[in-house]
Amino acid sequence: MNLAAVVLAAGHATRFGADKLSAPLGGEPLLFHAIRAARAAPVSRVIVVARPGLNTGTWPEAPPVDVVRLDSTALSQSLKTGIAAASGMDGAFIFLGDMPMVPHGEAARLAARLGSAYAALPRHDGRPGHPALLSAKAFPAIATLTGDEGAGRLLRARDDVVFDDCPDAAIHFDVDRPEDLNRLASKDATGR
């Protein structure tokens, strides 16, 4: 399978109160952690959908990182833009720019489970998380999304979505507020 990874990073982080994706974590911008997780996936390219002016870094090694600039905060528009950039691929992982702790091995497990399914999702304690792996069969439905809607509704309506039970709760953890980032930084410092 020829897969891409899409990192959604076009939002303006209103709950965070500042430039969340540029906030430092472990000496680098928060977004870089999500890009690194996307690059660890079994993909031939990474597509970062980013708002204008956001530092997306320089990633010289393979897989290549392409940046698509989008001046819209609507989740559906970011997702549609990323999927459009991944046209021709067999599927695309969806990573969120504010999820820095996604376990790097999870994407490979999702790819192994996808087969002919519509999508593959990690699941922890019975709840799905990220990254989501959408097969190319899902791409036309993504193009119909509107407003601040992600793929969740589409995936819940399908019976051909497969799950990987992941032991790591990090598939649910996103940074919404400065205290979330502070908690991650203190864990890094203590090793817990």
UniProtKB/TrEMBL annotation:
Lineage top rank: taxon: Bacteria
Domain MobA-like NTP transferase: 5-160
UniProt keywords, alphabetically: Magnesium
CDD domains documented for this protein: GT_2_like_f (cd04182)
Pfam families hit by this protein: NTP_transf_3
PANTHER family: MOLYBDENUM COFACTOR CYTIDYLYLTRANSFERASE (PTHR43777)
UniProt-recorded name of the protein: Nucleotidyltransferase family protein
Species the sequence originates in: Novosphingobium beihaiensis
Taxonomic classification: Bacteria, Pseudomonadati, Pseudomonadota, Alphaproteobacteria, Sphingomonadales
